[in-house]
Fold this protein.
Amino acid sequence: MGTDNAFAELGLASDATEREVKAAWRRLASQWHPDRNGSADAVARMQRINQAFEAIRNAGFPARPAPAPADDAEPAPAAAEDADEPRRRPIHRKVKLTLEEAAAGSIKSLRGRMTLACATCDGAGHQVLGGNCALCGGSGAVAKRSFFGWPGGMSECVACHGGGIAQRSCPDCEGAGTQTRAYQVKVRIPPGVRHGDLLHVDGRRARANPPPADLELRVELLAHPFFELDDDGTLRCEMPVDGFAWIANRTIQLPTLAGLRSLALRRDRLTYRLPGEGYPNGRSGARGDQVVTVQPVFPEQLSADQEILLDQLIASSSGHGAAAPDERLRAWHRGLRAWERGLDARDRRTAQG
Ligand SMILES: [Zn+2]
Ligand SMILES: [Zn+2]
């Protein structure tokens, strides 16, 4: 078969590359294989496909025509085979961050595995050697033998998978057609990312074990045990505090994104605003506030000692020995006594009437 006819038989232009020739042959061989194709001319067609492939292979695969070089241009260095292929679609992954990591920015090392078509055999699982398959002589089919040795029809040749051309199992993927590749990238996550943000990572920047494509990372902020984040960067936190410590205006330790800090409680106040202790906002990086709401907690059951101490406290603030009785309480008690006297006088009038 002449090579022009051979290319036509495979449905290719006469400058098709080795890769295109092999792909066309694989496609046609699987389409016309007599085991899968019941039409009368399947066997003949299969043989022509195989002959066409051999004819092209024997003549040498055409090289991709080189672009005309400019006069003073140096010869271009040989590019990697797939350098000008479009990049694969990005790999979508989640990246989970604690609120502290997300607020401060962090570097995350991501590992993963990708299953790809084997580059050595182009995903076929075998490599075409050329020449007729030794087992079937090029027909792609071998005679089945029944149990008693009678001819029992044809079956696909196992050595060439029905293609008729000598081939061998791909040594790099052991015939699977796929390769699993581990990758690892270090990703710098800027401070202040929000839940649902998308981060694009250029896979080509990874040094060792680069991913086979870029990464598209969706940020997932992990729920925090103490904090809730508002859209404006305000960080909210509710915490129980000892009721007596609250009454006593004591200083407590409270959590912030930067760690523990102290806060002086005030018994006239339940909510405290800590400016700039919240979450970074967008590109400005200005931090929101942290808003702390305290819940004073008192014991449900008081110990005998606590009862005595509380009695002393009450006496000291409103009893006869109070050092500085509160004017609000004194006014209330004056009013209460006047009201009580008024009731007594009315009762007496009622009794006399
Ligand atoms: Zn064979
Ligand atoms: Zn392979």
Residues 304-352 form one domain.
